[in-house]
Description:
Blueprint: H1 23-47, H2 54-61, E1 66-70, E2 76-80, H3 81-85, H4 107-111, H5 113-125, H6 138-147, H7 152-159, E3 170-172, E4 175-181, H8 192-207, H9 216-224, H10 242-248, H11 259-306
Parallel strand pairs: 1-4
Antiparallel strand pairs: 1-2, 3-4
Amino acid sequence: MATTLFLGGLFNVVDPVTGFMTLYMWSWIILTIFILVTQAGMYYRGWKPLEPLHGLYYARKNQSTVAFTFNALLVGDLVAERDAKCIFNYADGGHGEDYEIDIPDHKLLDLFPMFKKIQIWWNTKFFYYPTKYLDIPPTKAIIGRISHVNKDVEIARKLEGGKWDRSASVVCAGVPVDIVVDMDDWTIRKSPQHKAIVKSARDWNQLNPTDQIHSYQKYQDYLLQNKIVCPQGVNPSALIPWQRIDAAFPLDLDENEWAGKKWQKSKDDEDSEAGNLNRLAMWVFIGGLGLAALILLARVALTLAAK
């Protein structure tokens, strides 16, 4: 019995222009380019312009708070609580963990050492590191691993005994916002000060397992109390001139009177745009179903005609 080709083999013919590939191959190439261009457009038009709010997104995703961090020039940046307060990066072994999950010895695996190495790598690659510290159900662990949910704040809070300094002053998009002033680049991961603090805090934690330090606030408190020897190049405290504060935070707050109206207008614009996208998606879905139905009918007709 002869196989009935889709649409009578319409797409199986060689491209008449170049004579290089079939139309099927060209369609896959065009579809791949379309996907890449669409993804790039969504990134640069939808995600990249909202870069100042990325910290808010990660805070909501990780179920933590968000913080405004200000440097010595009082230039602010909205970041997730992890970036503003956690000394260690636990996912990268910041607490001395390499997360190489071993597997039990097995006679069959001993015969194939390479297979055992691959299995260890697989377990390590797909291991959700917060389960080393937190009691997380397997289903949530799988979701967190796939979604790249960061639990560094919860880990730090637990390792510090539940004590964690939070002084939220405002609420942004339903998320409490702290104010953190970093005068000495402590929160800059590549700065010499941060690296010195990481080493100093790790040394303290090894000698004091029941009184660990995982936040910049607690580390600074212990520095000021002379419990910790201040590392070279780290400034335990810094003063901000009032002139700089006045320049960064002017007392003229007339713009605040329009804040509510601006928020309401942006909310209305967002709802309107979302409604238009939903209607467009509905028509695209209906059109896709119609096209699929036509193709199905065409195939049935061609099959009947071939018989």
